[in-house]
User: What shape does this take?
Amino acid sequence: MSQTTAFIVDTLVHATPLMITGLAVAIAFRAGIWNIGADGQFIAGATAAAWIGVSAPATIGWLALPLALVAGAIAGGIWAAIAAWLRSRFAVLEVISTIMLNFIATYGASYLVRGPLQEPTHVFPQTSSIVAGAHMPILISDTRLHWGFILGLLLSVLTWYAMKYSATGFRIRASGMNPFAARNAGLINVPRVTSGAFIVSGAIAGIAGGVEVCGVTFALYENISPGYGYTAIAVALLAGLNPLGVIGTGILFGALETAAGTMQRNAGIPATTASVIEAVVILGVIGIAQFRSRCSVSAT
Amino acid sequence: MHDVALELASITKSFGRTTALQSASLSARRGTVHAILGENGAGKTTLMRIAFGMLQPDAGTIRVNGDIKSFASPSAAIANGIAMVHQHFTLVRAMTVTENVALGGRGLLHPRKARSELLALARRTGFAIDPDARVEELPASAQQRVEILKALSHKPRVLILDEPTAILTPIEAHDLLNRARELVNDGGTAILITHKLRDALKFADDITVLRRGATVWTGRADEATEDALVSAMLGGERAPLESLEGNNSRRKRASVSEVVMALRNVSVRDASGVERLKAASLEVCAGEIVGVAAVEGNGQHELLRVLAGRIGATSGVVTLPPSVGFIPEDRQRDALIQDLSLRDNVALAGAGARRGMMDWVAIGDRTRNLLGAYDVRARDENVHASTLSGGNQQKLVVGREIEWAHVALVAENPSRGLDIHASAAVRARIIEARDSGAAVVIYSSDLDEIVSLADRVVVVYAGKVSECGNDYESIGRAMLGVTPP
Amino acid sequence: MTSGMEAFLEGVVRTATPLALAALGETVTERSGIINIGLEGSIIAGALGSVVGAAHGGVWAGFVFGAVCGLAVAAIFALFAVVLRADQIITGTAVTLLALGGTGTLYRLIYGSAGAALNTPTLNPAAIPFLSKIPVVGLALFAQPSITYVLYALIPVVSWWMYRTHAGLALRSVGENPAAAIAAGVRGKRVQFTVVLFGGALGGVSGATLVLAQAGTFVEGMSAGRGFIAIAIVVLGRWNPLGTVLAALIFGAASALQFYFQAIGTNLPYQLFLAFPYVLTLIALAATHGRVSAPAALGRQDLELE
Assistant: This one.
């Protein structure tokens, strides 16, 4: 395999979780929900998928894979639902609650891989490997590229279609852009719509976690997410919160992370540089947007 | 001392592509009340905001006592003896009256000293106020007194009053305008922004008329005639005033038909548990316009939203048709999504209950028809709502709500901020809706609008709704809570 | 038993100090209507800055340089959120990401990938005569590193400034109703810019405290969400300086609990204690709902200032 092919494959493998978590963030931001918790939802999803993947009996065969992914979606959705509930019931800022839930998920996963879900020898802080039936099929033989990437593409297209053409998608967009008009002019139940979008966002981040476990790691580790949920914000914003755009920006950041990893190994440039670049991208995007809108101030 | 206290010469100001002021001028003599007259959107407030340093002019000069000045901020204007009482209160609701009046000072804050200074000022000027009350606890008229005291605390030589009577009952308004002269009689100057011609003629010494951002008439009030001022305000487009004001002359005494909207003993509490509407009962029939009059903050906000089905009642029985059109006062925020297309904004009506997929082609057709039928001037249905002028935005909202609901319409200050033509168009549409059988409720803070449009008037006072005769005298009394003898 | 309790209380105040410093700055910031989610970034920048400063000029130079670094990070936030009026949440998140990544990168560039053993001078506890002899709480309150005493001094100063000066009144009015403040002659943007920098500097001092008064070294990501917890503390402290510091003590107690339980030996998993402050934050935010009112204009980037 040529170096170029290897780079492309690695890029797409890295892009898969970024694309899907980026999609999750885009949905939430569209609804006016600042879900900074895709990381925690990813971990919750990965944990649930690993649990199913490890404990599924071999007799169910390939059914283990969809089961694991659904479990991931449910776990991610529940993790987001906690923040959604705190927001709608107690007006707790979702920014704070989702970040807190990220930490809790991290320590929760840490506890599980060192406690109840630890592999039988009790040496490594990780679960056993998931059963073969839960493995995501390989897309191109002899590479690590798996069908999760295609799943990500499908989810993006589906989300794009739903946001654009379904009544629910329209309600989400309207509620996010102007909750007052959504309520007064559209008679939309804004808290319900936004909470729903929040939970769907969490479920999608959970799927990303499931895909990562079933397609790449095949077990739950302590630091299963190197901060995907935060990179996802850059992915979503750079895509202009467009579900189709997330495909492109997800691949772009996948390439960035792959390059950062290579540079760390070869040139000693710290991988943390990638998050600096992500931050600069986010600031650049919002800076340009603000600057543009300042230039075209309309009369009041 | 110079004879002219404040002079604005050839002031020009643009916002983006919109020119708000085009070489506007004004010269306010010392010791006078000077009225700035003009219809909505003529640039009155913009001109005064420039005089007060809130906006910077693109061109033109400001002279105070003959000296050229330029104000980078309100603090600079205040330092030069200019103060402004804003139409939309600029008070900090969560703070006390004393804190609000003290705002803008320098150095150390002595709460007790500030309080006693305020009390002294209140005594001297006759604007009674509780210095320790939090502003949010005060009724609108008391809030306005705070606003005025705040302005007077800087000992201004020029006091600008922007539509000061908008939230007052006719009696309170009369009282305030009489006092404007007292506020300035020791050599000061008062500038009164108003769109009410009769107020200008009655209370001002000098009048300046603005039209489309330019000064078109200026002179002594006692030399002005109503006719001359009207033609100055409206310019060449002068049409019979009657028709422009949307006079409801075609009022048909339709036989009283079926009840469309009904409230029985309805009470509403707001989020903080205060009972805003108290056992209100009201029936609105098909083919009638019910006018609602109230001083700001008396519960009319809740009454309209209950009637429109936008909020629920705490107790009582509400009977409404399946859909009620609603034209909220703050259309920018509550009726339109500025960054969505006109088509999407039309789709918004009833979006809460829609199932399945959006038929964007059909909605696009409907939007185009609406733009034509309601004379909304827009390039096409795909432009953002934010690109429309205020008048066109409101015509879109009115059209959308009428077409969506048909049988019932609730409108809150539907012509606020619109120029005279757009106002007339909006009123005409509301009358048309009534004539085609809709039950209509309209609230306006402008009594003229209620008197000219309504078939029947109710007044909301302290959360209670009562029937009232359709004339200024009875409405004015009822708004103050004075029951007819 | 008494000494066990004293050790616990000492731990409470020690862990609360950096939280209180950061939260005190954020309180002032939020009273101006700005919610600075980038506080976390100021803390981690302050932590790294303090290492560099202390290595060159001793402990107090470490604190000063830490404050400067925290302020610099806050300046980036202010540039976007105050000057350009970009969304505060997104800006804050990006700034945090920038500072976490940036400090990690700089640290490895300066001290090598192994993170070379650092010889950072640290601040030892300094017992105040007499006061530290007060039973039970004496040691906890008055035998702390002197940065804690700086915190004690800041509380009345900040309170006085906020409630007894016109500048403080202006600050509070900008956070409640910017339009009113501006109409009264207050320079809204300037006020917000200044207090964001102030909050960032205190965030930097908070990070410096983590290094110079506690860990004795820099670790990547050592801020560990304290900036976000500080924001929750501000809510719990009802946006006033004294309340904030008292709320910080509760969180100090939540963290100190783990040392206490470790000391007495328990079978509970240690992750439970690590996660406890974050869980407590959620519970505290939910519990204070409806009893406190935030500055009315908090987080609103749509309001024009000047």
